[in-house]
Amino acid sequence: MPLANHTATICVVLGEHISNYYTGPLVRGAVAAASRLGCRLIFYSPFAIHLTSQTLGAADMPLLPHGADAYLLPAYVTSDVVAACTLQGAAVAVYSGSYPGLPTVGPDNLTAGQAATTHLIAHGRRRIVHLLGLADSQEAADRHAGYQQALAEAGIAYDSRLVVRGDFQIQASDESIERLVQQGVDFDAVFAANDMAALGALRALRRTGRHVADEVAVVGFDDALVAAAAEPPLTTMRQAPFQIGWVALHALMQALEGTPLPPRITVPSQLVIRESCGCDTDTRAMSDLERLADQLGGLGAPLETAMLQKLTTPIETALAGGGPGGCPGPANEEIEQLGWRLPALFGVIERWHAATGQHAAAAAATATLARLLTARNERNELDRTQRINMINYVIDMLRSNSGEQSVDAALRYIAGGGRLVSVSAQRGNAPDTISAQRIVRGRVEHWHGPATEFPPAAWLVSGEALLLMPLETSTQQRMLVGAIERAGLHHLDLDDLLLRSINTYRSITVLHDTLRELDAARSVQLSLLPRSAPSSDEYDIAGATQPARQVGGDLYGYYVRPSGALALAVGDVAGKGMPAALLMSACATALAGSIPSGMAPSPTLGQIHQMLRPSVGRGQNAAICLVYLDGAQVRIANAGAIAPLVRTAAGVRLIDIGGLPLGTPLSALTPYTEAEIELAPGDMLILSSDGIVEAVNSRGEMYGFDRFAAAIEQGPGGNAQAMLSHLFADVAAFIGDAEVRDDMAAVVAYYAPRNTV
After folding, report:
1. Residue 207, number of CB atoms within 10 A of its CB
2. Of 143 and 246, which is predicted with more confidence?
3. 681 closest CA partner among 637, 717, 645, 644
4. Which of 373, 409, 552, 563 is a good FRET partner for 225, with 20 to 30 A between their CA atoms?
5. How many CB atoms lie within 10 A of CB 240?
6. CB–CB of 746/570 below 8 Å?
7. Taking each helix axis from N to C terminus, what angle separates 359-400 and 403-416, rounded to the nearest 10 degrees?
8. What's the chain's Rg over C-alpha atoms?
9. pLDDT of the residue at 82
10. Residue by residue, what is the 3-state secondary structure of 461-482?
11. Residue 551's pLDDT band (boundaries 50, 70, 90)?
12. Which pLDDT tens digit goes with each residue over 457-493?
C-alpha cells in the first residue's frame, strides 16, 4: 500500500508479553524508529500467549486492525492472519523466524549457532550437548543447523544422544541435562538454543556436581538481562531485538515508498564472552571502549569499538559544551536512536578525558550528564509509580463494579489523569463494521465505520503508539487500547500489564455474569467437575468433592494431554462460599485450557498462576496438585496443596515436594519443583485437599495425616471407588456431629495395567 500523502500506520503483532527480555527491546526499537520516521504505530498484544507452541492464528487476534499500511508479524502466525493483513495491499515483514514469501528481519540464526558451537570447539570441547528450542520454531531449527555445521567443519561426528529437548525453558532444560548425567552420557559442553535453556543447564550441572567451565562449558543465545547475572556469568550469542524493531520499521517504510524488500534483512549478532565457556575474562584486558561497547550492546545494537568511537566522539564533544541546559538534543537523539541508556555512558566519559589530560572538559561533561540523568530518572520513576498505582486502582475498581460497568469504569479511570487515552471497540451490527469510543480526559468520542478504517486516523497522530488487546465478553469480542504519551516516557510494559489485569479479571468474571443466586453458582461449579472417571487401560480412577457450604472452593479434574496420557488435579481455594467458588471456577477453566498445551507439570502451574494472579482477591490463593500419568511413571508438581500419598506393598508414604500456592506475589519467582515416581501394579496414588486432614471433631481434635495414612493403609484394594468411599466414610465418622468447616476433595488412582496378571 504505497504512501499517498498521508501519515503511515504500521501495526506490530507481538508474540510475547512486553516485559519479555526479547519483546521489550523490540518494542522500544520500533517506538524509537516510529518517532524518527513520523509514522503512527499500533501494537497488537494477543491475550492468549502460547508458552509451549509458537502458533498465532486469527482466533487469537479478534479485531486485528485491517487498515494499516504495513504489518510486522511474528513468523509463527498462521496463513489466515497473513491473508487478512495483505488483503488491502499492505506491506508485510516478519520477525522471530521466517515465513514463506515474506521478508524476514532478524539475526542469521544458522551462522550465529555455528559461531557459538565453534567457540566451544576452540576450547577443545568435542562432546557438545545441544538443548533444542521449541519444535515448531524456525529460529530453533536454524540454531540447531548451525550447531550441526560447526561439528561437521571440525570433523566431529554428530551424536543424536547429545541433542535433547530444552523448549526455550529452564525446567525442561534442567531435566534434560540431569537425565544425561544420570544416564552416564559423556559430554563436556552445552550450547543452548536460548539463555533460559542455558540457565536450566547451569542449574542442573550445579546440582549434579559438575563444575561449569572446567568440566562443562556452557554457551547460551540472546544475551538476556539474566545472562550477565548468572552464576557463573553466561557466555552467549547476543542478538539485538531493539535493532530488529528499528530496522524492521525502516524497511517497511521503504517498502511503502516503493523500494522492494529483500527476502532477508539481517541484523548482526555478537558473541559475548563471559566465564561459563572457560575463557579467563579476569586476565583479558578490556579498553574503556570495549567495556562500553559490551554495556551498550546489550541494550541496543551490537557494537564494534571502531563504530563506537565514531559515534561517541560527537556525543562527547557535545556533552563537554552542553552548558547548564543539559545534554544537547542531537547527542541525546543519537544515544536513544541506538537504544542505549545514558547511565552506561556516565562511568566512562571522565576516564576518556582524564586519559587525554582534559580534566576540565571531563568535569563539565560529567556534571552535565549527571544533571540530565538525575532529572530523567526522577521523571521516569514518578511516571512508573503512577502507572503501577493505576493498575492497582483499576483492579480494585473491577472488583467494585459488575458486568460491562467494570470495563467502562476502568476505561474512564485510565483516561481521567490525561496520561493515557483509552479506547474500546466492538463489532458493529452491520457486517465488517466496528463501533468504538475514545475517552480523552473524561471526554467520550464515538466512532462507527468500516473495520478497515479502525482505528480512525484522527485518533492517533504521528509518533504516537497505541497498544491493543482483545477482551472477551459474554457476547462478543472487545478491544482495549492504551495511547502512549509522546514525551519519551513510553511505559508500554506497564500498559500491557494494565490491559492484561483488566482482561484476566474480566475473562474470569464473565463466566459468572448470569449467576445471581447461590443455587446458580452451585450448578456452574458442578458443571466444571468431571461427570465420570476417564477410561484407561492402566488406571482405575475415582474422585469426589464435598463442600462445607452449598458452594465450595475445592475442585478435582481429569484431563487428556496431547500424547493421550492422563493428568489429574486436586485444588483447594482459600475460603468458602461464593468467593471461593468463583476462583475455583477460574482454576478449573485455567487447568482445562493449559494442560492440553503439552507443557510439563511445573510450567503449567506457572502459566495458571499468571492467568489467575490479577483476579485473586485479598487473602485469596489457590493450591493445586498436578499429576501426569505416563504408564507406571508419575510426575507430580505441587503448588501449596496437600502432598499426595502412595500406597504400595511396603506401606504408605508421602510425596512432599512443597511449593507456594498460586496467586501470591511470590509464587512466580522460582519454578515449581517436580517429583517423579514409579508405580507397581496394585499401587494407589491418593490426592486430597486440606479439608480432609484438617477436619475437626466435636472435641477439637484434628483428623491429621496419621489417621489419613492409616485409613489408606487399611482401605480396600483393587478398586479406586471403594477406596474413595472408605476414606470419606472414615473422615465422616471422625467428625461426627461437628460442623464441617472446610471443603473436601480427593482423587484415587489405582494402577492396574490390563496386561499384568
Report:
1. 12
2. 143
3. 717
4. 373
5. 28
6. yes
7. 150
8. 29
9. 94
10. CCCCEEEEEEEECCCCEEEEEE
11. low
12. 888 877 778 888 887 655 555 666 666 655 455 678 7
In which band, very low, low, confident or very high, does the pLDDT at 33 lie, cut at 50, 70 and 90?
A: confident
In 3D, which of 743, 637, 752 has the Cα closest to residue 689? 743
Which residues share a beta bridge with 570? 556, 625
The torsion defined by the Cα of 29, 32, 37 and 38, in degrees rounded to 10, comes to: 130
Count of CB atoms within 10 A of residue 648's CB? 15
Grid cell of 358 as nine digits: 582534559
What is the arrangement of strands in the sheet containing 554-560, beginning at the earlier edge strand? 554-560, 566-573, 622-630, 633-639, 674-678
| Cis peptide upstream of residue 455 (ω within 30 degrees of 0) | yes
The three cell numbers locating residue 736: 461426627
Query: In terms of Cα–Cα distance, which of 111, 63, 98, 72 is closest to 481?
Result: 63
Q: What is the 3-state secondary structure (H, E, C) of 324-364?
A: HHCCCHHHHHHHHHCCCCCHHHHHHHHHHHHHCCCHHHHHH
Q: How confident is the model at residue 261 (pLDDT cuts 50, 70, 90)?
A: very high
* Strand (E) or helix (H) holding 151: helix 138-153
Q: How far apart are CA 662 and CA 90, in angstroms?
A: 43
Q: 233-253 pLDDT, tens per residue?
A: 999 998 878 889 989 999 999
For residues 32-60, give the mean pLDDT: 80
d(CA 657, CA 671): 12
Residue in the structure block whose three cell numbers are 464441617: 740
DSSP 271-283: EE--STTS--TTT
pLDDT at 451 over 90: no
CA distance 466 to 44: 8
As a whole number of angstroms, the distance between CA 429 and CA 66 comes to 18
Kindly state the cell numbers that stand for 115. Answer: 559461531
Has residue 389 got a pLDDT over 60? yes
